Amino acid sequence: MRSYKKRTISGDLVIVLTLAISLVITILGTAYYLHSTRSSQLQSEERASYVTDIFAEVLMQPLWNVDSGTIQRISAAYMNTESVAGIRVKSDYEIVFDEYPRDKKNFISRKKNISKNEVYLGTIEMLFSDENILQTQNTMISMILIVIFSMALVIILGTRLIMRSLLDRPLNRLISGIRNIAEGNYQTLLALVPQQDLNEIIHEVNVMASEIAKREEESLRLNKDLELRIVKQKEAEEELRKSRYYLKNIIDSMPSVIIGVNARSRVIHWNKAAETWAGLGAEDIQDSLIRDICPYPESEIKEISESLMTRTPLRMEKKAGYRQNEFVYEDIMIYHIPDGGAVIRVDDVTERVRIEEMMVQTEKMMSVGGLAAGMAHEINNPLSGILQGIQNTLRRVSPEFEKNMRIAEECGTDLGVIRLYLEKRGILKYLEGMRSSGIRASEIVSNMLNFSRRSGSEMAPADINRLLDSTVELAKNDYDLKKKYDFRYIRIIRDYDPHLKPLVCTATEIEQVILNLLKNAAQAMAEIRKKGEEPKIILRTRGEGAYIRIEVRDNGPGMDRKTRKRIFEPFYTTKNIGMGTGLGLSVSYFIITDNHKGMMSVESDPGKGAAFIIQLPSKQGTI
Predict the structure, then answer these.
(1) Is the separation of the CB atoms in 71 and 63 below 8 Å?
(2) In the chain, where are the structural domains located?
(3) How confident is the model at residue 444 (pLDDT cuts 50, 70, 90)?
(4) Closest CA relative to residue 96, chosen from 119, 80, 79, 75
């Protein structure tokens, strides 16, 4: 922006007036200078022509007489003339005199042929200097400049004095009054001056001061109102910010996935759980289509998109899938907003589904328990008779008893021959098989009775870590584990919580549960050793609030979802025929959930081993 601080009206007027007069004088001086220069030029040219004519007449006779000496003396005399700068005299046969400068510029040149009685005698050339013209011009220029500067100085001084009196003083008073107004003194009016044009300005300034005073009063009032509104607005904005922050914290703290979409199915709101659920950052979720961030199969995404487009509510329950490498169940609900858009809510119901499955399992166990008690008593009596009959039959044909030998002789036969016949016909083998099957049936009946019978034992505090160690020692000495699965070659990894408090429980029942889990793990890992992999079992204990968590984890073949769902059902087994009754885990589940009011679950995937998790209340009563 240009600065005008050093300029004044009076100064500008003085400068303009001085320049105008100086311009007029300069134009007039220039015209006079040009006229005088032209006149001097014409006079010099006329004089040059005149001198040349006289010089030609003087040289006519010497040229006629061919008197070179006279010609040279006359020419030299003319060269001494002030205005003559050069002479060249040529006869018809030679140059008689030649004092001609090489540079002919800035000279007046004249040339004349000399003849007498129409006889050509020669030619003269003369150069005349224009120094007198230049001197005249310089003198005139100096005079003109002196006149211009003198008049300009007089004009500047005179107009400056006049302007100060007529313009500067009124303007200074006007400026002083305007400064007072600028400082906020609107009540003092400016005094009038003799100049009418300035009085009009002063009047307008006084009117402006009055208007400014009114507007300032109005502005002060409006500013106070505005300040009050701003304070209230800031308070409202702060309350709104706190409310938004509070609501955001509430939504972010919810375990459910909350996603808000607009009418075009683009995401506009979400919580922290949604970022984990989608596996994306905030910048990737913002303004994305809901179909682009849903981690569901195409069929379910299509169903969600149709619900958003048709604005129909949607509820999808127990949708199975994997989140962060874990199998989960999710409920999906879509609520539509009246003004457009919708809210999508996704709940992880995996634990609820597992609890429901456990409740169903518990119902089955309770119903089976009642059936087991009746069946055990009804089956046990005839089974005992069958086993006793088979045992007596085997004893009657055994040659080890003397009475058998004596009675056979009384009947006229040989007991050794009879036994040989029974062996060759396989009858003894059949009888032994019947006895083994009867014993196995008796064990099943015994397990059923244990399954249905509530413990009458007193609960007592027990060190759960020591209880696990003693169970491991029992497993090492178990005949089946030692002979069939060689439990000694299984690496036991203990990960105990040393700060666990004693657990009130029935120690023998907990030992039974843990021993059953160790047997199942050893049997499941039999194939691992065949493949050259090291079988291992991890025993882990942890305190979790009001519960103590016991975990038995192996690196066996694991189990699929179908097997995992039915693993606690009575008589359900994945072992070969004759290898198990299918009641071990059912009895264990019953002991934990019914006798100890705890929880028992399994985590497993094919090829990733299995983990049985037991959660027991830290404090128990007496059963």
Answers:
(1) yes
(2) 11-155, 456-622
(3) low
(4) 75
State the Rg of the chain over Cα.
66
Mean pLDDT of the chain: 78
CATH superfamily of 456-622: Histidine kinase-like ATPase, C-terminal domain (3.30.565.10)
Sole residue written with tokens 């700060």:
499
Rounded to whole angstroms, what are the CA distances from 144 to 18, 130, 133, 138, 149? 16, 21, 17, 10, 9
Residue 415's identity, in one-letter code, is L
pLDDT above 90 coverage of the chain, percent:
6
Query: What token pair was written down for 474?
Result: 């029992």
Torsion angle of C-alpha atoms 404, 405, 406, 409, degrees rounded to 10: 120
Sign of torsion, CA 215 216 217 223?
A: positive
| Sheet containing 547-554: order of strands | 491-495, 536-544, 547-554, 610-617, 599-604
Total residues found in the chain within this entry? 623
Do 596 and 614 contact (CB within 8 A), yes or no? no
Q: Mutual orientation of helices 169-182 and 196-253 as an angle, nearest 10°?
A: 20
Quick: pLDDT tens for 89-113.
888 778 888 887 776 667 778 888 8
Q: Which one, of 612, 616, 615, lies nearest residue 518 by Cα? A: 612
Mean pLDDT of 331-358: 78
11-155 to CATH, choices 3.30.450.20, 3.20.20.480, 3.40.640.10, 3.50.50.60: 3.30.450.20
The tokens for 186 are 């609107």
Q: 321-324 contacts: CB < 8 A, separation 24 or more?
A: 321/295, 321/296, 323/277, 323/295, 323/348, 324/276
On the question of pLDDT at 1 being above 80, the answer is no
Which residues have C-beta within 8 Å of that of residue 550, sequence separation ≥ 6? 464, 468, 514, 539, 540, 541, 613, 614, 615, 616
Whether the full predicted model's pTM is greater than 0.70, yes or no, is no
